Amino acid sequence: MAENRKTGTFNVTGPDYELTMKKLLNTCKLIANSDTELVWADEKFLVDHHVQPWTEMPFWIPEHFTLEGETEPWKGAGSISIQKALDAGLSFSPLEDTIQNVYQWEKARQNSEWKAGISREKERELLEAWSRK
Question: Could you name the domain of life of the organism this protein comes from (predicted)?
């Protein structure tokens, strides 16, 4: 859009189709040629085990439980219309290209520790707790 000198206020979250976490993560596995086993824990389990939405679990905000300091759940927080931006020419790179670029960048990073995201220790504890359910 910037290349076409479009100005104004636009929601440009994307993509322009419904992208589930399952499709995103399975595509990541495919690009990385990974045999990682995905484990799907329910929202209540994550909330009960104090997983911090968005920071420890990126792209996740509970839809059925109230966040700390809020009075109601954030239902539909990720559902915003981008139609105005699409009409103005917003386009997206293919998902596979984006994942491949991020994967190559990640492999080239010197420091493998992230400042955001769940720690490996907490992830291991959660997986153990989930397997006992």
Answer: Bacteria
